[in-house]
Design goal:
The complex is a heterodimer of chains A (159) and B (179).
Chain A (H helix, E strand, L loop, with lengths): L1 H18 L1 H35 L2 H10 L2 H14 L4 H13 L4 H13 L5 H34 L3
Helix pairs in contact in A: 1-2, 3-4, 4-6, 4-7, 5-6, 6-7
Chain B lengths: L1 H6 L1 H16 L1 H35 L2 H8 L4 H14 L7 H10 L4 H13 L2 H11 L1 H25 L2 H14 L2
Classes of the chains: A mainly alpha (159), B mainly alpha (179).
Chain lengths: 159, 179
């Protein structure tokens, strides 16, 4: 995936350079400025991710998701998903193992959905661009929506 | 110096948390540190090309083109484009915000920008393949089918919740960050 991203960037950069050197230099300057502007927030988010993931490891997550089933378990799963930041290629296999160990589909769906849509740790980056109000409403709506996703996924796995 | 301190205060707070953790539980702190180092490597690998693409987009895509395709009155076309571009992306959620900012700056509507963020967060195609493999077609496809209308409804509600001064505030923030 990263290779595709780099290839596309290099090709577009080359085309841009061929068409207009000055504009390309300006584009790169803009890129650097935008990166530098958000860097402090990125760094904070990365350290926070490290701390949260060291505490919320696979065992802790499975304990929370495995112990309680039903609504309490679903709420717990949604909260865990909201405060963690795990890349999908780690999260999905983990979720799969949890399912095999007896976790319910509803809980797993709540976990996966909030994991992707709700970002408590990335909140500092989000408010930098969209302000507190928008970020709070977006995350709240996404959190509530995840319960709908959980109920529907739970339901399709029972029929 | 003071300005630098304010800019980095969040980062400094997280570092302080790490130090406190180290005093309480050295093992956990070391683990946190190695996870942070690992994610930093990931970020430094993925983020630079995204920002270069953003710079190019900002310079080359004329405002009226963006307005026509994703602005007010772009209708279904704008919604579809927002879903497609967001879904084609791969990367953590925080990568979506700078991209969304440039879209907004270049004239995309708020609703379409929110749809884009939603699609980036949940219907990324590369991630969908992982999900399909790990959790099965029933799980992955149901989630996709529920998520697409869900994202559109959330974006619509989010758009409704913002008044003019909120919008102006966001536009100002975005202008400042993508100068």
């Amino acid at each position: 995936m990263t290779i595709i991203l780099y290839t596309a960037t290099v090709i577009l950069l080359a085309v841009s350079l061929y068409k207009d050197k000055q504009k390309t230099v300006k584009a790169i300057k803009k890129a650097w400025k935008a990166f530098e502007n958000i860097m402090p927030q990125f760094l904070g988010v990365l350290v926070l991710t490290g701390i949260v993931l060291s505490i919320m490891n696979a065992e802790t997550i499975s304990r929370i998701l495995g112990v309680e089933s039903g609504w309490l378990g679903t709420i717990g799963a949604a909260v865990v998903g909201s405060v963690t930041l795990i890349p999908g290629f780690v999260a999905f296999p983990t979720a799969s193992i949890l399912l095999q160990n007896g976790a319910g589909y509803m809980q797993i769906a709540a976990f996966v959905s909030t994991l992707m849509m709700v970002g408590v740790i990335t909140f500092p980056v989000e408010i930098e661009y969209f302000g507190v109000k928008t970020a709070v409403i977006r995350n709240l709506l996404a959190f509530l929506f995840s319960f709908l996703v959980a109920v529907i996924i739970g339901w399709v796995h029972t029929v | 110096m003071k300005k630098l301190f304010i800019r980095y205060r969040f980062f400094l707070i997280t570092l302080l948390m790490l130090v406190v953790l180290a005093l309480v539980n050295t093992g956990l702190a070391l683990k946190s540190f190695s996870i942070t180092a690992y994610s930093l490597r990931e970020v430094l690998l993925v983020i630079p090309p995204i920002f270069v693409l953003l710079g190019l987009l900002d310079i080359w895509v004329p405002r009226h083109t963006m307005v026509r395709f994703m602005g007010h009155g772009s209708g279904v076309k704008g919604v579809l484009l927002a879903v497609l571009i967001g879904s084609a992306a791969a990367g953590p959620l925080y990568g979506a915000f700078p991209v969304a900012a440039v879209f907004l700056k270049r004239g995309a509507s708020f609703r379409n920008v929110f749809i884009f963020i939603g699609a980036w967060s949940t219907t990324e195609i590369p991630m969908l393949l992982f999900e399909y493999e790990a959790l099965g077609p029933r799980f992955a496809l149901t989630r996709l089918l529920v998520d697409i209308p869900g994202i559109i409804v959330i974006s619509w509600l989010l758009g409704l919740s913002l008044n003019d001064s909120d919008r102006l505030d966001i536009v100002r923030k975005v202008e400042k960050l993508t100068k």
